[in-house]
Design a protein that fits this description.
Layout (H helix, E strand, L loop, with lengths): L8 E2 L5 E5 L2 E5 L4 E5 L4 E6 L2 E6 L4 H22 L2 E8 L4 E5 L2 E5 L6 E4 L4 E7 L2 E6 L2 H14 L9 E4 L10 H6 L2
């Protein structure tokens, strides 16, 4: 049995969970999320906890068991606490600013990069080299943060680019230093 899948999920006091016709709806102080779950599993609420159960022990059912328990857990955390991702921009003259729902970035290209922020994500730039993203949907915020990072990923020689806050970039020594080290 899945170690993660068999653990019950305790429903927080401020969250409401409803299961109807294969769709789980979660509502909390931060917002609402809903998701259609797999018909290979049964999700039930008993005594303030959510239980995810599978009908067979086939390989796909075992893999879906832990996955869906984790997805429901992420939904509960999202509507009660929320998720944040922080991105840093490193480089001389590199900066970002929000204009409405568009993130404008100057990253050393011949043009400025405009990235539209989708609904469901709140973005802000408290400093020109810092981007803060907040959302209740963990999947969405992770995907958008990776799309922003992909515009100019950190390079290994000087470390310039967009990186997650606290991300360590292993730097390489350049050609000149490598030749003098011999």
């Amino acid at each position: 049995m899945s170690r993660i899948g068999k653990k019950p999920l305790v429903i927080p006091k401020e969250a409401k969970v409803e299961i109807k016709d294969g769709i789980i709806n979660v509502e909390g102080p931060k917002g609402k999320l809903s998701r259609e779950f797999s018909n290979r599993l049964t999700v039930e609420i008993k005594d303030g906890s959510i239980f995810v159960k599978r009908s067979t022990d086939t390989k796909i059912d075992k893999s879906l068991h832990g996955l869906w328990r984790a997805l429901i857990s992420n939904m509960l955390t999202g509507v009660t606490v929320g998720y944040t991702k922080n991105l840093e921009i490193v480089g001389v003259g590199f900066k970002a600013q929000m204009q409405g729902q568009v993130l404008n970035m100057h990253l050393g290209f011949s043009h400025q990069v405009n990235f539209p922020i989708p609904d469901g994500i709140k973005a802000e730039t408290p400093k020109p080299n810092l981007i803060n993203l907040a959302s209740i949907n963990k999947e969405l915020i992770g995907r958008i943060a990776m799309e922003i990072r992909r515009i100019y990923p950190p390079e290994p020689y000087k470390g310039k680019g967009i990186r997650f806050a606290g991300e360590y970039i292993k730097k390489k020594i350049g050609k000149a230093q490598a030749a003098s080290a011999k």
